[in-house]
């Protein structure tokens, strides 16, 4: 309800222990080559220490034949929210952090580039640097 109130885009329906943010709508000024979902994950961590996982271009890995990055139609940030652990105040902090990032979305114009990745399962070992 708070994200709706703040106007922050997310994947509907939200439910269960997961919450997905539609990263292209939250950070519209980032090119896909700069890993939109990962950038949002970093921003959320820097904003409030909240960890999420990107479900986007890094997870999609490279094409095995061309070795080019694959860019899925949706870049998502997954937040796992254990309902029996988090209080209403925790949820308010998460929503406020999402709102703060969304309010400064026009200022977030650069993402990240890969400096190292393992040959397989790069999303576990990738190293990035801010552009």
TrEMBL record:
InterPro entries: ArAA_b-elim_lyase/Thr_aldolase (IPR001597), PyrdxlP-dep_Trfase (IPR015424), PyrdxlP-dep_Trfase_small (IPR015422). Its cofactor is pyridoxal 5'-phosphate. Keywords: Lyase, Pyridoxal phosphate. One of its GO terms (molecular function) is lyase activity. The keyword Lyase applies. Residues 3-96 form the Aromatic amino acid beta-eliminating lyase/threonine aldolase domain. SUPFAM superfamilies: PLP-dependent transferases (SSF53383). GO terms for biological process: amino acid metabolic process. This is Tyrosine phenol-lyase. It comes from human gut metagenome.
């Amino acid at each position: 309800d708070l994200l709706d109130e703040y106007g922050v885009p997310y994947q509907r329906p939200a439910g269960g222990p997961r919450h997905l943010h539609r990263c292209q709508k939250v950070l519209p000024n980032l090119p896909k080559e700069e890993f939109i979902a990962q950038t949002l994950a970093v921003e959320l961590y820097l904003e409030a220490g909240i960890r999420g996982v990107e479900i986007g271009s890094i997870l999609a890995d490279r094409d095995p034949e061309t070795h080019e990055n694959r860019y899925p139609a949706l870049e998502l940030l997954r937040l796992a929210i254990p309902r029996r652990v988090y209080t209403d105040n925790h949820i308010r902090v998460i929503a406020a952090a999402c709102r703060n990032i969304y309010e400064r979305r026009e200022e977030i114009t650069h993402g990240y580039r890969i400096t190292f990745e393992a040959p397989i399962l790069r999303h576990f070992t990738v190293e990035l640097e801010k552009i």
